[in-house]
Fold this protein.
Amino acid sequence: MRTQHQNPPRGGHTKVQAASGAGRIKRALLWLIVGFAIAGAMALNARGARADEGSGLSLSANAAIASDYRFRGISLSDRDFAIQGGFDAEHESGFYLGTWGSSIESYAGSEFELDIYGGYASEIGGLSTDIGLLAYTYPGSSGTYYLEVYGSVGGNAGPASWTLGGAYVWGQENTGNQDNIYLYLDGEMPLGDSPFSLMGHVAYEDGAFGNNKWDWNGGIAYNFEQFTLSLQYVDTNVDTREGKGAVVAMLSASF
């Protein structure tokens, strides 16, 4: 359920230099913990399929490796590979809670982004709707977390699917007391009966994290069993190294 999320610097903070050896060791330990958490969610999901049959609760996990962590078009991994993963708890009523993490370029003493979110998803008149609240946190740093509300509506147009959504950050101490708005349109279309599909995205951002900023991407995905292999070209109108266009490859899995 994790939404497609801002470009650095977050909240006006300045990033620190590359990680030290101690920082790399701590990051490795942190990823070990995350790995155990995801494995635990997978085990719970496998065991709980029968045990929680009457509760309406389901658990799921996801993991991915990407050649670059692009968040709203901007590289948060210094154009280097990133390891990502998370898990969700969803109730048949539509309410859900989840968490998602990614390795990032060293930022304010942290090399890890951890997002925690909750919301409500439903279907109204054949359209899928989603609304929630998300907290961006950076373990190991201070004065960096902030909150964002998000919402989206999606549907089908023939064989293609689309999602129109937005996210809003109100003025908070860690955003320099500035607000931020992000609006996007996503689309996906399968290529006949093949496991391939085309996907595209265009978005506009303005406020604390972007000044009349646009980002867009397009690519192709190959789905096999619980895995997805994708290749996309990602670009923005931001004239920085982190915002310049690049081809991003990702291998992800859902359990």
Summary: The first strand starts at residue 57 and ends at 66. Helices lie at 21-51. The chain has a mean pLDDT of 85. The chain has one helix and 14 strands.
